[in-house]
Please model this.
Amino acid sequence: MSSIAVVGMQWGDEGKGKVIDLLSELAQHIARAQGGNNAGHTVIVKGIEYRFHLIPSGILYPHTKCYIGGGTVVDPASLLLEIDGLKKHGISYVKRLYISQYAHVIFPYHRLIDQLSEKAKGSSAVGTTGRGIGPCYVDKTNRIGIRIADLLTPKVFRSKLEAILAVKNKELELLYQHKGFDLDDVYQEYSDYAEKLALFVAPVEEMLFAAAQKKEKILFEGAQGSLLDVTFGTYPFVTSSCTLSGGICSGLGVGPSRINSAIGVTKAYTTRVGNGPFPTELAGSELDLFPDHTTAREIGVTTGRKRRIGWCDAFLLRHTACLNGVDSLAIMKLDILDRFEEIKICVGYKIDKKPLKSFPATAEELAEVEPIYETLPGWKTSTSDINLYDELPENAKKYLRHLEKYLEIPISLISVGPQRHQTIWMDRFFD
Ligand code: GDP
Ligand code: IMO
Ligand code: MG
Model:
């Protein structure tokens, strides 16, 4: 097995960053296919906490090469800040970080339109990160976007920017009564970014093809989660890209036969940040049983919002395992359940007492479902120092086996804390 996709099975923030970092020790290439700086992936090494938004979480191992694929949307200011962060921590990036020419560029009007359109939606707002992700993908699909390749060709860039600014300024004025942007200002700002980013632009697609031909080890780093997928997620409360394993092919220009397996990353419970239905969400006294948001590390990395928290939804996981073709599970944050007397797992939904056969396709229906729970005994001891499966409390093993059996997918990794060593390896990766 020489390439592995790592995808989120819930609504994002499952702990993909930690899994990618762990597996990067063995990999040579790590690539992001979609999304932008709406993502926030946390890696903790030797007490230092790194938060990646667009740079792949495998950058901390000096032997790796990291790629930002053609299916991503790049906010140059944010990316340059991330690169500065690497510099400050003494992490090398020259000849290690590559950006595809095909990636689309996020401009200030994307961010502003994202924020203004959310405001205009009022109570039906998606709860986006406000980073301009949706509006940038809209322009891409509408064939009026500006790509990294355009940014590097001054004449082309200026003429494309002039054409699109005329449209965006009109949109801002007529729809939102907001002042537009000055062509010269934006052109100058982004020409400066282009100069700084040029060093990183490379034929990512060919480089990954060559790596796959040589059977070098590649990790595909998913961003967001399966239920934020623009097609199969809880639409319209989703992001604007394909977040599933299938999106890796179109987002990086790699053929499906080059992806050998998929690890589905899930928390031992569920979280969601942003709006939209969440059947197992907890409030009140049951939520109080969870550690507080800061202790549980359930504060959004990108926006600082508190994440909504709920029980593990295995019915949802069965659905997203199917959407991704998940081969094995990485169960994260088991330690957060350490204190519970009893733990619930949702194994089905019902509406008007009738169990549903499959996962609802609409947000409206999902908002109506009543979870069907099974209750398991808690283990009430700390798991955060355990490295071997056999040393886990019996009830923790029972919980994990229950999940494995219900999903019919083996667990390959269990995480019991945010640090590298707080991991129970159940399988070998990259033979
Ligand atoms: P990602 O977006 O999927 O990479 O996940 P995030 O980094 O946004 O959120 C996961 C949070 O949980 C981060 O703060 C991680 O450091 C933390 N984390 C990851 N695995 C564990 C774990 O097993 N236990 C605990 N307590 N925290 C974890
Ligand atoms: P990682 O990669 C959790 C959510 C936003 C909002 C919706 C649309 O860290 O798991 P967008 O700005 O993308 O248009 O917002 O998607 N969202 C995430 N939630 N983790 C993420 O990324 C997310 N990226 C976007 O909160 O509900
Ligand atoms: Mg995150």
